[in-house]
Specification:
By secondary structure, the chain is of the alpha/beta class. It is built from eight helices and ten strands. The longest helix is centred in the C-terminal third of the chain and has 16 residues. The radius of gyration is 18 Å and the shape is globular. The chain binds adenosine-5'-diphosphate (2 copies). Pfam families: ABC_tran.
């Protein structure tokens, strides 16, 4: 479980998050929706400590971080381990093959044996429908395929939560489908996911919970059926 209490984040004199209180449950998919510039990405990035709010509490299970104190690097490392971020623009290593992209973290960071890491990577590539692209390079893949590799790479680190920031917004609609299918499969396996998305169809179909953010505040926190039926 991830819980934020009274979290505030400013950029200069712009308040991006105001007194935010929210809980993200494990084994659920939460969709964060809302207008452009409302603070969705800042919220997501705060969960991975890519952004540092000035005040408030961050709970990750029993671990508590008080944003009003300097962050301890061991807390940052531990939170980064437990939260895998998937970016809008994939961020793959262009000089590494697809399977090496997926193996890199497990071998370099988790110190897994290369053979075992390769096997896990191949299983994950199979899961995202790209086992046949293992030896290709990112530049040879479509955007949708690259994003599926990025999801496999995130899963390879075995995070407790997967954070996805507009995972399909750089893709043409016809390339979106493969990525959405992968996310739907992960949701059905009860993986813990937090997805910033503009895709309301996806939010309605896949999310267990919707968070609607506007102007740095949460205006709705509840089920998709309530979100989509209430006036
Ligand atoms: P969203 O993801 O909902 O589009 P963001 O979280 O990216 O919104 O941004 C929220 C607000 O904070 C916007 O007004 C944006 O311009 C501002 N903002 C985000 N990141 C920065 C930054 N690094 N420096 C200054 N302002 C920022
Ligand atoms: P992209 O390859 O850019 O994602 P598509 O969304 O059209 O473009 O997907 C390409 C193909 O990969 C589709 O025909 C899709 O059915 C196939 N595919 C096979 N297995 C999977 C899977 N597990 N998840 C997603 N797509 C898959």
């Amino acid at each position: 479980m991830i819980k934020l209490e009274h979290v505030n984040k400013t950029f200069g004199n712009h308040q991006a998050l105001t007194d935010l209180n929210v809980t993200f449950n494990a084994h659920e998919t939460t969709a964060i929706v809302g207008p452009s510039g409302s603070g969705k990405s800042t919220l997501l990035r705060s969960l991975n400590l890519l952004e540092r709010p000035e005040s408030g509490l961050y709970h990750f299970n029993d671990q508590v971080i008080d944003f009003s104190h300097p962050l301890a690097s061991k807390d940052v490392l531990s939170i980064r381990r437990k939260t895998g971020m998937v970016f809008q623009d994939y961020n793959l290593f262009p000089h590494l093959s697809v399977v090496k992209n997926v193996m890199e973290g497990p071998v370099q960071v988790l110190k897994q044996q290369p053979d075992a890491a390769r096997q896990t990577a191949m299983d994950l590539l199979d899961k995202v429908g790209l086992a046949d692209k293992a030896d290709a390079y990112p530049g040879q893949l479509s955007g949708g395929q690259q994003q599926r590799v990025a999801i496999a790479r995130s899963l390879a680190m075995d995070p407790e939560f997967i954070l996805l920031d507009e995972p399909t917004s750089a893709l043409d609609p016809e390339l979106e489908a493969g990525v959405l299918r992968v996310l739907l499969a992960l949701a059905q396996e009860n993986d813990s996911m937090i997805v910033v998305t503009h895709n309301m169809e996806f939010a309605r179909a896949v999310a267990d919970k919707i968070i609607f953010v506007e102007d740095g505040r949460i205006l709705f926190d509840g089920t998709p059926s309530d979100f989509f039926t209430k006036p």
